[in-house]
Write a structure and sequence with these properties.
The chain is of the alpha+beta class and about 110 residues long. It has two helices and four strands; from the N terminus they run βαβββα. The protein has a single domain, classed as Double Stranded RNA Binding Domain, CATH 3.30.160.100. Strands 1-2-3-4 form a four-stranded mixed beta sheet. The protein is elongated, with a radius of gyration of 17 Å.
Length: about 110
């Protein structure tokens, strides 16, 4: 899986980039078919940094999560949490709803 961390309207230190990459790499355990994760940190408004995560998967459209918070790490954690929810929901649809048989209760 390829992870790309970039910044808009500013720059991130290499330590921050590696910490963000390690937090985002946890998403692989929620869905095995992820091929790439692109993280964009928008520092245009320094008091309210925005984080966007785009997850690319095999045979599926891209999943996107956004988060704005007062601190950079809260933005990162919020965006990762939103992406986890999307990946769980997608995995549940693929795995559980494929072979569901309806049963009628009398």
């Amino acid at each position: 899986m390829q992870i790309n961390v970039s910044a808009r309207h500013g720059s991130l230190s290499p330590a921050s980039q590696s910490k963000i990459a390690s937090k985002v790499s946890r998403l692989k355990r929620y869905f095995d078919r992820l091929t790439a994760l692109e993280v964009t940190v928008d520092l245009h408004n320094s008091s309210l940094p925005a984080v966007e995560i785009v997850a690319k998967a095999e045979h599926f459209h891209d999943l996107v999560s956004h988060e704005h918070a007062a601190q950079l790490w809260r933005s990162v954690d919020g965006a990762v949490q939103k992406m986890e929810q999307q990946l769980r929901k997608h995995k549940e649809k693929v795995r559980d709803h494929k072979h569901v048989q309806s049963q009628r209760h009398s």
